[in-house]
Design a protein that fits this description.
Layout: E1 8-9, E2 21-26, E3 31-35, E4 41-42, E5 46-47, H1 49-57, H2 59-85, H3 88-96, E6 103-107, H4 113-121, E7 124-128, H5 133-141, E8 145-146, E9 160-166, H6 175-185, E10 186-197, H7 202-207, E11 220-221, H8 224-233, E12 236-244, H9 254-267, E13 272-279
Amino acid sequence: MPAYDGKSELHPCALCGGLIFKPALKCEGFSFVRCKCCALVQRNPQPDKNEIIERYSGIYGKDYLSYEIKNETAFLKLQQFALKDAGFARLEKTFLTAAQKPAVLDIGCATGALLENLREHGWNVTGVEISPCAEYAKDERKLDVRNVPLEDSNFLDSSFDVVLASHLIEHLNNPETFLAEVYRILKNDGYVFITTPNISGFQARLFGGRWRSAIFDHLYLFSKKTLSKMLKAAGFKIESCHTWGGLAAGAAPLWLKKIADSSAKRFGFGDVMIMRAKKQ
């Protein structure tokens, strides 16, 4: 995967504003640091925001589209499993029995497979996607997908009952600004579901800089504690957090992987987490 060629900038910690960091993960050609005040793990300095947008909308974005089309069935199943763990089905039943058709926004919706599924269930669906996947979702699935970052989408206040963001927040320069915008566009008592790698999980601790989520494109690596703090700072109430993934496929014999996966889900030290939070 190609690296950014442009400038990098030092950022204050997105969670506490701190400027003192210590080494966290040393990877091949880059590294992550940990804020000494709040423990948020991050790339710092970071690539420029406009360069990141160009990366996903340019040549690399075309490769990303092919990758998403090839894997969208598997990715959809993973998203559905995660949402089920987070209690989405119960909330969906409540929303769909209301007089007004509920509205959902999927940020980083890729090819729109999940949105298409939710539309079939009865939701009003909208997506945000900065890569060429947006055009695919619009042309092939006839979805309303905005091909700009969330902050430039100009949604009205209190537009959505539910906001989904799967494997997105770790890619953003300013996750705190992103969550503030999510809070603004959610209706009162609306919900946000955030899915992201879990640096407090077993695999991250085991593999360190070789962890599969310690990659160049990830600017932040959240723990349950740091993601919870950031959501609370934006005004949300945390309602649940679930994790999954004990060992990666091929990392251990199948019998051991099954035990590790089951334990990770049961005791909350999985490789990936989904957090459900409510706008108070």
